[in-house]
Fold each of these.
Amino acid sequence: MLKLFQRFAGAYRRYFIIGPATKLLEVFFDLLTPLVIARMIDEGVTSRDLPEVIRYGILLLVMALVGLGFTLICQKMAALASQGMGTDIRRELYRSINRLSHAELDRFGTPSLITRITNDVNQVQLAIALGVRQLIRWPFLAVGSMAAALLIDLKLGVIFLVSTPLIGVVFWVVMARCVPYFRQMQQKLDRIALITREGLSGARVIRAFVREEHERERFRAAAYDQAETAIAVGRLSSVLNPVTFLVMNLGVCAILWAGGIQVNVGELTQGEVMAFVNYMTQTLLSIVYVANLVVVFTKASASAARVNEVLECEPSVSDEGNAPVDVARLAQGMRPAPRPLLQGSAEGGQGDAAVCALRMTGACFAFEGAAANAVDHADIVLAPGQTLGVIGGTGSGKSTLISLIPRLYDVTEGAVEVLGTDVRLWPLRQLRQIVSLVPQKASLVSGTIRSNLCWRDAEAPDDKLWRALECAQAAEFVRKLPQGLDSPVEAGGKNYSGGQRQRLTIARALVGSPAVVILDDSASALDFKTDAALRRAIRGLGQTSDAAGGIPLTTVIVSQRVSSVRDADVICVMRRGKIVGQGTHEELLAECPIYQEICLSQLKREELGASMGAKAGAQAKDAAGPERPGADPSRSGRSEDVAVRLDGADACAMSREDEKGGLR
């Protein structure tokens, strides 16, 4: 809490001075009130002097109005300070979250970050407001009441000295047991947020599989768990009020008993005894409020620690100190490559490093705590204007591989270069302007089609937007909309079909003339005709120099469809994070068993060509070994009965739904 105060309170220092100062003035009038009442009783009520009673009554009214004025000023200062600091904390927290790399986002988790930026910041705001309004008032009122009471009579002051520590011990015991529960409550609130988010975002899937009751049970269990913790805190806190008021009332009884005796002997007046009772009440009530402040500040302390954890988290991906790359200089001499540029080939040697649009050299990446690399020693070279296809089973590392290009993650070993420069040397803003990524899940935000398309270039004219829509095969349905580019988009793009959302996200990636476009399985909702037209249009862009700095557009396509990658200049076959095959469609068909298996699962045998049949026959003969005596020769070496099999994980991942659609 102190760290947040030191970091964000500077702009609101005057509010933190004026607010408590006015609250002290209010407390001063509160401390004078029992003395005025005592004078009213002794000089007016006892002697039945009505004018004197009225005079003191008017004085009390004036004091109350002045105190109210100071209270209103303090309330305003508290509101300005708490809301202002809360806004600043939330803004800085949101900025910090947007600076985090994917590794930190994976570690914190989306539900936890949402809770921190909403509930946790609200707890801090409440603590700041109560701190300005109450943190000075109640301790000062308690100490002032005790001092005033002791000034009236030292003998009765002994009752204060006994009652106050007794209540303090009770509060200390209860609060010490409550503090751990407050931290648990925030963590369990994260769990409820996670289940709620999953249930709302996956509502259609839950209904499709009739899992409503299961999700209700999950939510009920999480809610009951959090409720049990809150009830446990409530049980402990419920001890406070009865014990406090018991001690307070016993103290009042003791004061009346001892004070009555002193009044009879003339040592005290009736008004002084009443003042003593008022001070006793004020002191013990102040202790109750201080205990409530302890609860609030304990919650706020736990929340502030969670907020600070995000604010102090240094992103693992940083571009501090990176100078802008001269893209225009890199573009000189670059032109579309006439044929594939493969790692290890003569064309892919060191002499061509300057013209490589994309190069990976021994690139490795492992998630935090993982036992093995998600990407293991990947080597890829791609010239400007070429197309790279990445194919493999689910979980083979395709998306992780391409996430290294825009530096969503940093390699743990090796290097990734874009336009001949290591991605760790690029300013992140410039790198992600050069490299445009279309993620697996089509993501649109509320607004209009125009506002979504202009993410990469806020000043993009309509002709560029329409050109991107034409290339993404989205122009036709956008033109049919009544408002065209200004047609509304609901949150998540829910008012458009899956295929329309994918085409709009592809168009958004093409606006702003990127040098490298990455399509991460982003055409899965498109029919094969539209998918083929999309790939032709993007391939056409690769033969021009309309990209950033006049560099021909280089494309990376991640897919599980053979039809989507078969025309790529270079195809990488992934399995368990490793590139197990690299080359053109024909080369892989003849040499890569895993690629053969993928093709066999999606294409008809006639499409695979003679080379595939001969290769499969040779593998079948080798697998069969020496012919056994008496074996039927007609059952050996038949290539049509042989298919090289993937392991269970990859085999299950290959979709059989594309078999008919895979025909070209």
Amino acid sequence: MRLDSLPRTLRQKASLAFILVVLLAIGNVSIVQFLLRESDGVAATLNVAGKMRMLSQRIGLEALVAHQHPDLPDPALADLPSLFEAAHDTLRRGGHAFGLDIAPVPEALASQLRAVGLAWTRYRIAVDALAVASAGDRTAVADLARTGADLLARTEALMDGLVVQARMVQQRTLYGAYALFALDLMLLALAGWVVFRRILRPIRDLVKQCRALAAGDYAARSALPPGDELGELGRVLNDSAAHIEQLLRDIEREHAALAEAQAMFNGLSDNTVAGIYMADENLRFIHANARMAEILGYPQAELAAGLPFDRVFVGPAYEVARAQALERLSGRTARTRYECVARRRDGDPIELEIFGSLMSLHGRPTLIGIMFDITERKRAEASARRAALVYAHTSEAMVVTDANGVIQDINPAFTAVTGYGAEDVVGRTMAVLSSGRHDKDFYRAMWARLRETGRWSGDIHNRRKSGEEYVERLSINTSYNQDGSVNCRIGLFSDVTEKRRREASIWHQAHYDHLTQLPNRQMFQENLRRSIEHTRQGGLPFALAFLDLDLFKEVNDTLGHDAGDQLLRLVARRLGECVRNSDMVARLGGDEFTLIVRDIRNPDDVLPLCGKVLESLAQPYALGDSVARISASMGVAFYPRDGDSASELLRAADLAMYAAKEHGRNQCLVYEAGMRGPAHVRADPQSG
């Protein structure tokens, strides 16, 4: 229906709204009655099914009582089966039962109803058989119980189906109520929309127009269509406003141009960034805004009172300012830009950037322009130039990346260290230098530290463009924007490959025996302490074996020190071949060696290793043209069983070793408490 076909007068509109409300109420009542009737019919069907279940149980109970007590009065069973069958027939065909109007059960439940009828037939036969059976006939009672249970189960199944059907009806009823409610809302919304569109909005537009006219807005118009009372009122208001607006339009047009020009100049002059000035043809200031007064350090009134140029621009700066002003006054140029050094009222110099043009004021040529204080910018530019010199000439490599590690810039030292030029790496990540020596966890920890603190420093193994690996000492710092986001990251690094090699060589010399390249006494003591700490923190026990070569002095005296040194190197090699990678072999000095065997679950597990060591060391040694034979005596102690500290444990192993020597050499003994007797006391083995 089109809007223009709706009733035109307010009375017609009100009548239409009343009719719609009445029709809506009648429709709601009709739909609710229909939904209630459907729900009541399902409830009645379910009630009849329940009465059938009760009748079946009562029939069986009374038949059983009559069988067991034949002398009791007849319970008159004849009526109950008829009631059951009548109810069953009503559910099948529909009709009236137990005072209720019943509709036929749905087609979906017809099979279950037929199953109830069949079960009832069997049950009825069992009841009749029980009635003529002799007292104490258990077979008839059992048949009654079996067929009764089957009938009860079929009836229950039918009721379950009816319950499901009832729930579906309830669901449809609920959905119908929802749909009815939604329809009501839609109709009410439609009615409200029509009322709003045809009555309220026109009234609101008229009120808005009246308020606008009262406030002096005579350009306000209503767009109400003609044809009803509200449209006619809108037309009258529009005509009245048009007459008043025409009277004021000419006055407003005259003031508009002047107000616009004044507003533009005031807005420009009141800024806090640029100084605004005007000067006459005699090079005297006739206007200055507050920012210009702040820049030059003069009171604003003193500047605007005709302060001459030569008070602000001194020496060569005045000549530049005068020449630029004359160029504009003569008409040779319309606008100009230049930089010069001015002098503040307190005598301090100030760097200025000036933009100027020419205008006419009261019929006279007038200079107008803006000036900016660029002192800090000049200082920043000078600082940037110095920083660029440092960036370009420092011997330390520098790289600038974005927040994600993408390279933005490098300095020449970067190329000198890595071999990569800017064209090779800009736009790529630092992974271009990766040597593959560091795993993902290393870089994950680095980035976590950078995101947390903005800083990271450490050694990294990288690869030059030539493929050569090198070690760099890298320091990364982060530059942030004012909002806290990352502006860039700056990395500084230098090649410390040779330095780290020297440090590694010095460390190796301090911790390893120069003859056998085994860990020395200092390295042994550190590993022993770490093993003790590992066990204390929950690790498995470990064994310490103290080993002394038998007959080594004779080889040294007979074949010479060079042969003795060669023998020690061969002993070290054989010891290393006998132990696991997790174990440690060390030379304490002379012909004394130690083994740290970690993660021992059973002390007996060490004995095969000790046997392997003794057997290996007892094999012949080819020393040049000579062959030497030696053996070894070993003592073993276990932590924490045989000592609570490094010194106690080492002394226990040493005592066990000397006990092995006293028992004939070339054997291994495990420390026992009795070995601490006076016969075995000697100097502390840690003292060397």
Amino acid sequence: MSPDIDTADAATETTVAWDRAWGQIPQGRLASAWQGTFTRRRIERIAAIAAAVGCFVLGIQAFFIALGNNAGLRPGWTIPLLTIVFGSLIIMCGACFFRATARVATGAFAVIYIVMLAIWPLATAGSVPTATPEPWPWYLINVATIAAVIAFRFPLQLAWTIATPLIYGFVRIWQGGFEPEFLLAAVFEVPYSLILGGLLMTLVTIFRRMASGVDRERARTVAAYAQAAEAQAAQEERVAVSALMHDSVLAALIAAERADGPRARSLAMSMAREALEGLADTGTPSGGIDPQPTTMKALARGIQASLADLGLRLQVRVEAAEGEPKVPPAVAAAMIRAATQAAANAIQHADGVGLEAIVRRPADPEAESDTDATRVDADQVEGAARSVVESDERLAAVEVVVSDKGPGFDVDAVPDDRLGISASILARIAAIDGEAVIDSGPHGTTVTLRWREVRR
């Protein structure tokens, strides 16, 4: 047989469906931005919730200390200042559980704390402070720094982490009139707050940068995959159209030119109609084949109908038991077209002598045992056979055999630029993970198309 008729679509139904599904994925700027910051968003949310829990604990501690020792606040300042500071702290802890309000609330508390330190000398004017124990604002220094880390960008985070303890130390010394005991107290309190605040800021910054790196790599991988999928789809479409134009259309034109009788002209007309239908079907997932699982009888009818379009009336035999598993639509489409191509080649080059087609279930490879194999007892044989039968009933398999009694041909001598066998039969069946075997010689040509479902 010669590969002058028809060609294969370069993509199977699965590939086309995948390309169509990929096209449904949103590729807008908002979708891309969200995909690119997925890990960073999660880290931000975890940091905000952890900060809320830790700040609430420190806030409770500072509040009870303030109730027992207001650190020299004048009577008119105690209630308003405590209400503003601790009220904003409670609001901040609650807002950290919500993404939309976390940054606003934490930023507000960071500013309120600095303002409180600025007016602290005025609020404690006229009182007699003590160097020990630490006043309640000291317990809130790192609450303000972690709030700044959550709310602000890195330059402001760094400024807040350094400036907040220093401002507190200056105010503490100012309140004590620059006495040595207050200087000593500030020397112990300020470095502790600086170290703890710097550690918290460093940890959050490290996690943020790691998350941003993961997001960048994910975005780069998704973009590369999208580009590769787009290039593959374009290449498959080019191959499909080029192969169809080169094989089916060109073959139809050659057949029309060489037609020298009624039958040859009828065949040329059928080939032309087949080529036009092939061009129309290239945009459909299954190329005009019913996109439903197919029985073996329906598969045989599909082959007969496809051959009828070529002007050939051939009865396709079905050798399969009732209740066989159905064949997937992509497999059925490939089998119908490959069998049609094999029959068309037989008509053109062997004049259809002895042409027949059979649809059946392939023999189980496990059943082909060596005659010298070790014998087992009858119970083991029966159990093994029953296991094989049950396994076969769960898995679909199909075999289509197209044969003729023509003079045959040398398969290895077929030129590479002829796609009737390489593309329309071999490549088409390989695309569905099947097997195509061509046996040709003086006795005739037999094309065997075989597919088995793979156990998952």
Amino acid sequence: MSIKPPFTDLEINRSSKGFYEGHSIEIAVLSKSIMIGLVLWALIWPANASGVLGSLNWQLLETFNSFYVIIVGAFVVFLAVLAIWPSVGKLRLGGDGAAPEFSNFSWFSMMFGAGLGVGLMVFATAEPLSLWGSNPVVLSGAVEANSEEAVRSAFRYTYLHYGFHAWAAYVVTGLSLAYYAYTRGMPLTIRSALTPLFGRLLNGFVGHVIDVLAVVATILGVSVTIGFGVSQFVDGLYAITGVQWIMNLNADVPTPSTVGLLAGLCVIMGLSILSAVSGVGRGVKYLSNLNLVLSLILLLVFVIFGSFAFAMNTYIASLVDYVMNFWNLSFGAYSPQSVAEFTAALPADAVPYAEALRPGATNAWGSFDGFVSGLEADAAALSEATLTAVYAAGEQQRQFGWQAGWTTFYWAWWIAFSPFVGLFLARISKGRTIREFILGCVLAPSLVCFAWMAILGGTAVDLELTGGANGAILGASNTAKLFVTLGEMINGPLLTGVTVMCVVLVLTFLVTSADSGILVMNTIMSGGDQEVGNKHKIVWGLILTAVIGTLIFAAGENKPLDAMRNAMIIGALPFTMIMGLMCVSLVKALYRDGMRNKRHEAEGALAGE
């Protein structure tokens, strides 16, 4: 039986003249309309935008939290099967004769810069410390928050959020794009990855929608990354200069002010746009090398002056713990607990007070002591045994709230970032086998993340655990924790020098991330063409700046990054579904191509006879 050749006649109509020359007008206009609409909404009705985004985000999480958790776990399993499967793993992207364009060292270095960067600067200390005080094991009451017993579970979930699952999201997109680009000669754009399922439909409106969803997800994913990075940039400037107008010093914990964030954003995005249009962007490779060198110097500072022995013990023990709990971490999804379910789980004497008891008992960010101290009137008079049972009755909702607000946020972030990182990984991986691509892009960077988190985060945890920091690091904002940790480790001119180096590192990471993000958005809109005009780089740089700035403005002074986070989780959901279809599409393509290859081999053998 003959097998039809694969569909590769993908046509993306591009304008031949005018402002949009070389671009798809449909993709560009629809993408810009969505983002400009979001900007105007956040600018004109900031309170309404922030409230609606928050409400819609929570409603979606109540419905799709389990979907997010399970599908990201499925991505890891899917890639593991492809890597292990003999006939698939040995396939070379670009054909049997293709050789890798980059050495292994350069390949890993570029991968490090693309997928890690500013996220590890912000959360290297913040993530382990925050999880040390709140994670599912702590919520269950098995260990006490901020105790020695809670360290292992803190790093278990740190590894979950920055390990195999994060990179699997990038690789699903990257491998799909690379396979069709290098084995079928198709454009390096998102719709190419779905041609086995939808064929010629992708030449029209359906294809435009898929690319637009990728652009929207990328903008929002990059926005969150830049938002956190700008916050740390401002914290670093304050640590160096002491300038007060860039900070909100009236809050319980000093954080960058809205004015400070907007000023920092303008500096970062101004440099990014200048880099993109002036040709300085050609030196991104050198900036990436600078980032790597500065990162290694920072790591060395923590090795010499930090808690290296504690960090290495934590690294090994937590890695074993992470692997042992891997299946449950991947697929242990929680669903929301209704009022009726909570009430039904209460002891009989607590049922009359269910309404008063539920908020504290189901608060994912609280504690048993906080729950008890917050009770009033007759509810406060219940016995300790009853209150313990009440708190246990609310565990399902606490676990759901924690997972939706923490793990699912990360999954949405990595998914929204995956068109950006995936496209980059596809570009630099021609000539690699599928097995090389998966193992090299999932295992290697994950182990680097684990070491980075263990050394920087382990030092911060140890300083608090031994009492050396006396709560100073725990009491700092997430984006300031790195600088406070450094202040507890070193002092004098060395502290000033390392702090300045960290600010420079954050700055270069942000500039390269924004510059690359602008390029990826234009690549999608030009049907895979990497050469785009400066005017489009400027326009998308300004749109990206406006999206971040107006969402910071809409969220207000207290939690300026919340509206951006909510918009990103909402925007990532449709692309999550597209990624699921990418997996199905890739399986079909691999199977059909395998059948074609066997047939060709059989025909060749018959001809030889």
